[in-house]
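Teaching soon. Invent one.


***
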Amino acid sequence: MAIDHCKQICVPAGGGSLRALALVLVLGNVPLAAWAQAADAPSAPTVLSAAPGLDGEGVMPAPAASPPAFNYALGLLVSNGPDYAGGGSRKTGLRPAWAIEYGRFRVSSSRGSAFLGHGLSPRESGASATLARSDQFNLSASLRIDRGRDESDAPILTGLPSVRATLRGRLSAGYALTPRWSLGAGLSQDILGRDGGAQWTTSVGYTWPLSEQTRMSFGAGATFADRTYLRSHFGVPAAGVGALPAFDPGAGLYSVDGGVEVMSALNRQWVALAAVRASQLRGDARRSPLTIEPTGYSVSLGLAYRCCR
């Protein structure tokens, strides 16, 4: 039986090459014929299934652009502080504190941006725009109204030229050294040429989360100014005014300050804020005859409704 099976399948050793070739051709023509028959038939459209997360061309689709975030805060802030930098009297005031933020643009009152969680960062009141931002670095530009000062602010200022209101432009930068430590710097300039001069500020900050709802921020900084700014704020004209001798200050460091702020989310919408800040005049600003108290402090308490963080 085994011999008969070998006769049907095996190729004899002597001169069986032609039989083997014929057998290969016969067997090989079976798939070839099937292929030829399929080629003559109308072809169905080929459907390529994309991999999960890819489009039909095998390319990862771009994520849908999320609309810019819109946030706002509206509240009241009561504060107590010196009547002017270096003044000997104090004043207490109640004023609205608000901020509107849309994407990288913001408009806010003094201290209003703190209610949106920006805390003791170098951001001021007015209109601002974020120019560049990453996980560690941010750069912004802003415009704000500097209301100046006049002789009605304190009796010692009677007879002195007023510090005229002006529009100031500011460029601010911040850098996060760690999730808690940060550095800040800012350059502010009177862009209307009303003797407002220029200021340069530097700061360092530390944020301490007390709980999921409450955080405490510490900040310290130094402020430098050019001669134009110091002459308008701490100078006395050459002829003197009343009992005040003439004084012509020069540029340089004029103030150092430090503060602590506690902000707590009472619920999803309401937030409370308390802040204490102390500052000390240095250099020619301290030596000015307009400086009565070189060291001053201010206290602020606030409550605001915010949405939609």
Q: What stands out?
A: The first strand starts at residue 70 and ends at 82. Residues 17-40 form the longest helix (24 residues).
